[in-house]
TrEMBL record:
Signal peptide: none annotated. It comes from Oliverpabstia intestinalis. This is Sugar transferase. InterPro entries: Polysaccharide_Synthase-Rel. Pfam families: CoA_binding_3. Keywords: Membrane, Transmembrane, Transmembrane helix. The chain crosses the membrane at residues 12-33, 45-62, 74-99, 111-129.
C-alpha cells in the first residue's frame, strides 16, 4: 500500500502536536511573567484565549505550507518559518479579540512575551525533533525496499539523484538494467541484481516493495511492465519525463521523489484516516524508544 504524500500536515503531524505543546507552555509562561501564578486560577479569559490559540494553530497548519520540506530546512530558514507561523497565529488572535470586543481582558504585554517565548521554544523543539526523526529515518528497518529499473544511458544519473536525498523513506536494494546484460556489476555502490529476462523470478524470491521505472521506451512497453508489477502488489514510480497516460493506471499520483517528477501507481493507496492512525502510532513508538 502506497502512502499519499499530498498533505504535509499528515506526514508531519508530530510537528503540529509539538507546536501545540510549545504554544501552551509559552502562553502559560507569558501569563505568569506578566500577572503571576494567581492569574491562572479560575481565569475564564485565560482558558478562552488558550483554546482560541490552539484552534488558530491548527487552522494555520491546515491552511498553510508551514511543514513542507521541514526536515530539509536549514537553521535560518527554520527560524524564518517559525516566526512567520507565530506572527500569523498572533495576528489572528488579535483579530478574534477585535471582533469579540474582548481586548480589555488581555494584556498586550502577554502576547509580546508569548511571541518571544514561543518562537524560542518552538525553534529549539523543531531542531531537536528533526534530529530525532532524521536519525530514526536513516536507521529505520521500516524503510521500503526500492528496485531501480533503468536504461543504461541514464542509469548513473538516476541512481545519484535517488541517493542524493538525505532523509528518504526508501532503501535502494538493487538495479536492473533495461537494455543491457549487466548482472553482477556494481553501479554507484548499488548491485545489478538481475537482467530483464530474470526480473520477475528475482521479484518472487526477494523483498521488493517499490520499483522506480526509468525507461524511455514506447508507452506499451512501460505499461506492460507496470501492469505486471502491479499484479504482484508492487508500487511503481514512473519517471514522467517519459510521458505515460495516467488514465491507464490505477490510483495515479504525481509527486516529487528525490528531485524527480514521478507518477506513482499502486493497487491501493492509504486514506487520510489510515495515514493519521499510522502517524499517531509512529509518534507513540518514538516516544517509547526515546523515553
Amino acid at each position: 500500500m502506497y502512502r499519499k504524500q499530498q498533505k504535509s500536515i499528515i506526514k508531519h503531524m508530530d510537528f503540529l502536536i509539538l507546536d501545540i505543546l510549545m504554544l501552551i507552555i509559552s502562553y502559560i509562561a507569558a501569563t505568569i511573567i506578566r500577572d503571576g501564578w494567581h492569574s491562572l486560577r479560575a481565569n475564564a479569559a485565560f482558558l478562552t484565549m488558550l483554546g482560541v490559540l490552539i484552534l488558530l494553530q491548527v487552522m494555520v497548519a491546515l491552511q498553510g505550507n508551514n511543514y513542507n520540506d521541514i526536515l530539509r530546512r536549514g537553521y535560518l530558514v527554520e527560524l524564518k518559518c517559525v516566526l512567520i507561523q507565530n506572527a500569523i497565529v498572533l495576528a489572528a488572535a488579535f483579530t478574534f479579540m477585535f471582533i469579540t470586543k474582548s481586548q480589555p481582558k488581555y494584556s498586550r504585554l502577554v502576547f509580546g512575551y508569548l511571541l518571544i517565548i514561543n518562537t524560542l521554544l518552538t525553534y529549539g523543539a523543531h531542531l531537536i525533533w528533526k534530529r530525532v526523526v532524521r536519525g530514526r529515518m536513516v536507521n529505520s528497518k521500516e524503510r521500503t525496499h526500492l528496485l531501480v529499473i533503468s536504461e543504461y544511458a541514464g542509469l548513473e544519473a538516476c541512481i545519484r539523484r535517488l541517493q542524493s536525498e538525505w532523509y528518504k523513506e526508501y532503501k535502494i536494494t538493487g538495479v536492473v538494467v533495461y537494455d543491457r546484460q549487466m548482472k553482477g556489476d556494481v553501479i554507484n555502490n548499488i548491485s545489478v541484481v538481475a537482467d530483464m529476462d530474470e526480473l520477475f523470478q528475482y521479484l518472487k524470491k526477494e523483498v521488493v516493495d517499490e520499483v522506480f521505472l526509468n525507461i524511455d521506451g514506447n508507452n506499451q512497453e512501460r505499461l506492460t511492465i507496470t501492469e505486471d508489477l502491479l499484479e504482484m502488489g508492487i508500487t511503481v514510480h514512473i519517471n514522467i519525463n517519459m510521458d505515460l497516460g495516467q488514465g491507464q493506471l490505477p490510483n495515479p499520483i504525481v509527486h516529487n521523489m528525490s528531485g524527480c517528477a514521478v507518477l506513482t501507481t499502486s493497487i491501493k493507496t492509504a486514506t487520510f484516516y489510515q495515514m493519521v492512525a499510522k502517524r499517531m502510532m509512529d509518534i507513540a513508538g518514538v516516544v517509547v524508544v526515546y523515553k
